[in-house]
Amino acid sequence: MTAEGLYVYAVVPPGLDSASLGRGIDGAPLELLSARGRVAAVAHRHGEPPYSGSDEAAQRRVLEHGEVIERCWAATKAVLPMGFNVIVSPGDGASAEDRLVDWLDRSAPALVRRLEALRGLVELRVEISLREDASSVGSAEVRELEENLGERPPGVQRLLRRRLESLRRASAEEAADRLYPEYRRRLARLARDLTENVRGHPPEGCVTVLNVAVLADEEDIPRLGTELGDIEAEEPGVRVTFLGPWPPFSFADVPDVPSVEWTA
Q1: Which of 250, 231, 220, 264 minimizes the C-alpha distance to 125?
Q2: pLDDT greater than 80 at residue 157
Q3: From the CB of residue 226, how many other CB atoms can be counted at a distance below 10 Å?
Q4: What is d(CA 145, CA 60) in angstroms, rounded to the nearest whole number?
Q5: Is residue 111 part of a domain?
Q6: Which of 179, 215, 257, 259 has its CA 20 to 30 A from that of 164?
Q7: Same domain, yes or no: 86 and 125
């Protein structure tokens, strides 16, 4: 057992009713800690180390963390989400509550500005990928290998198949590099902001063209969907994944204050 800390889910505008937020991770009761009525943090009392355990438990807790943030967002349309396992610890003779409230108070101007900037905006995840086999259709070398593959001995076929896979991938990556700036420009035109998602993985047999988180007005979601439908229809082999809307997880930009111990 460690000294009691505070597990923090999000920063929200004042006036939110904590009773409407339900429960947190593992059913923990939630509370609001406010700084002079300007901003508040949604948290639960946490007297244990950061969450760990099996992959199944971790996945469940990450989902429960996200559900709290989504309820905050649904109630306020303005939220600054924290990452998973963000815990404020006591220290320097101050309780975790005192340290969190002090951070909120000192950071209030920046937090209020960011909350207002994100009010009513949503995050969407967009992944555009390209099938390797479709992008190499025009390659004379690929066609020649495909046509002659069956005439070669089994050992040679294995070598040629590896060569064929390499050629297809190289062709797809070249096409992806060509398409990327155009697709990014088309999405940026309909978005407030966008940022690269480096953790994405393309489907099997595909290469990534574009993988981004998009910040947009809710009313612009249909326009984004139409644009992505046009992109998918225009280029053979293009696959589009379009997820959301969610709270603006990727755009919170919460001030980093060294005097508060964020343990991730």
Answers
A1: 250
A2: no
A3: 11
A4: 48
A5: yes
A6: 179
A7: no
Residue 175 in any domain: the answer is yes
The answer to whether the beta carbons of residues 11 and 111 sit under 8 Å apart is yes
Whole-angstrom distance, CA of residue 224 vs CA of residue 219: 10
Residue 4 in contact with residue 88, Cβ under 8 Å? Answer: no
Q: What is the pLDDT of residue 151?
A: 60
Q: What's the domain range around 224?
A: 121-134+171-248
Q: What is the CATH number of the domain that holds 191?
A: 3.30.70.60
- Residues 187 and 224 occupy one common structural domain: yes
Q: Please identify which residue in the block is written with the tokens 């009691």.
A: 4
Provide the angle, in degrees to the nearest 10, between the axes of the packed helices 154-188 and 140-148. 150
Secondary structure class of 113 (helix, strand, coil): helix
The model's pTM is: 0.79
- pLDDT confidence of 189, banded at 50, 70, 90? very high
